[in-house]
Write a structure and sequence with these properties.
430 residues, 4 domains, four-stranded mixed sheet, 10 helices, alpha+beta
Length: 430
């Protein structure tokens, strides 16, 4: 059966294909499409190499362990205020830990002094650390210096908070609206719970699996002492919200993610924040800050947060819209990182690459391979030879850009056979 691996003029094309690497045992030149990590051409050669290794190092020979990396004091973790470039990633930690320039490889690690690998993660190269261990140490030491007051976080440029909602979203969701009832949806729905905005407002009612929680401001309930306590220890105009559990009468006061005060059945001390308790009927209840992550119409991320009293706590949930966007971002980031890693192998450091989702290219090309012009099956996944892959029309070996205009859909096997040649879709320069 013809699967498109060869053609009528395979004999003519065989002389133009690239030669593979030689086998480490017998020296036979392997096929060019075999991975570079493969050292042996067959199982007998692999077995022969294993026997030779066992003869050179018997089982009873003492094992030589590589010494663990020792962390020696390097450059102290002080934020580089001379940084003028913008750094992406974590809006809180990256501006604090980023150096003035991204490491290109060979610069000393700020923790252990070892050279930063050229192939290190971009976040590690931004922070001038050589490994994940040194990155964790850098964060821990910097956090300790911030707590001791040795680092002024407010003076660091471009530092942001970790709040998922931006100013526009807060203004839109903070507009006046009528109180609503948010219920638990049926099991056949795409998401199990109803919600709207960033948090409940006064008068809202949340029902979670027959457990009902209502919301009111502390001022409307006459809790002036609670308002004074919160304003004395936070913002002067802070207005605490009070969550009221209808089944047990338990109360909880909070502002944003800060829990200030609870009053539950059986609470031993009024100043103790007790989030788990037993009701009069013997049922166990828990105060939980439920978090749902979603995206708005413009694709921006935001979190719904609400303190609710439930019998069984639920984890942080993602809506189908946020899950789809997260998968799209994961695919595009993985494709971009793969391209940049290949460019580093050719000596191009920090190559520019667009965030292109491979599925967008497949949909644009109508799931048709642009090399063999046969249909691609979306259900077939890598490492199947007929799985869908991205092909650079101008090859990466010739500094082809990672843009939508230079990308096309192709079967994996067709992409391998093409190699570093120019593909259809753009004329090869003379």
């Amino acid at each position: 059966m013809d699967h498109g691996f060869g053609s009528s003029n395979d004999a003519d094309n065989s002389t133009t294909e690239h030669a593979g690497r030689p086998c480490a045992v017998c020296g036979t030149v392997m096929e060019y499409w075999r991975p570079r990590s493969q050292k042996y051409c067959s199982d007998p050669c692999r077995t022969s190499a294993a026997k030779k290794q066992r003869a050179e190092r018997p089982k009873d020979a003492p094992k030589v362990r590589r010494p663990q990396q020792t962390l020696t004091p390097g450059t102290p973790p002080v934020p580089d205020l001379s940084r003028t470039r913008e750094v992406r990633g974590d809006p809180h930690w990256n501006p604090i830990l980023a150096a003035a320039e991204r490491a290109n490889g060979g610069e000393p690690c700020r923790i252990c002094g070892e050279p930063v690998p050229r192939s290190a993660h971009w976040e590690h190269r931004d922070r001038h650390v050589c490994s994940g261990r040194c990155n964790t140490t850098l964060k821990r030491r910097t956090k300790a210096r911030i707590e001791r007051g040795e680092i002024d976080v407010a003076a660091i440029p471009d530092r942001g908070d970790r709040s998922s909602a931006d100013a526009d979203q807060r203004a839109r969701f903070g507009a006046a609206r009528e109180p609503q009832i948010f219920r638990t949806r049926t099991a056949d729905g795409d998401f199990p719970y109803e919600f709207y905005g960033l948090s409940p407002i006064e008068g809202d009612v949340i029902e979670r699996h027959s457990s009902v929680t209502t919301y009111a401001t502390a001022t409307s309930l006459g809790a002036d002492e609670l308002v004074a306590l919160v304003q004395a220890n936070s913002e002067p105009d802070a207005e605490p919200m009070v969550a009221i559990h209808q089944q047990t009468g338990a109360l909880l006061a909070y502002t944003d993610r800060v829990l200030w005060w609870t009053k539950v059945p059986g609470q031993e001390h009024p100043l103790v924040q007790q989030t788990s308790f037993e009701g009069d009927d013997g049922r166990q209840w828990h105060w939980q800050n439920e978090i749902f992550r979603d995206v708005d119409e413009s694709g921006k991320t935001y979190d719904w947060e609400a303190w609710v009293c439930v019998a069984e706590p639920t984890p942080t949930l993602w809506t189908p819209a946020y899950t789809a966007r997260s998968e799209k971002q994961r695919r595009s980031t993985r494709a971009r990182n793969s391209y940049q890693a290949r460019m580093r192998g050719y000596g191009a450091l920090n190559a520019d690459a667009d965030q292109v989702d491979p599925f967008d290219i497949y949909e644009r090309d109508q799931w048709v391979c642009q090399l063999c012009h046969r249909a691609m099956n979306p259900a077939v996944e890598w490492p199947d030879p007929w799985s869908a892959t991205l092909d650079h029309i101008k090859p990466v070996a010739e500094s082809g850009a990672h843009t939508a205009g230079n990308l096309q859909a192709a079967h994996w096997i067709c992409n391998i056979r093409k190699g570093d040649a120019w593909g259809p879709g753009e004329a090869q320069p003379s």
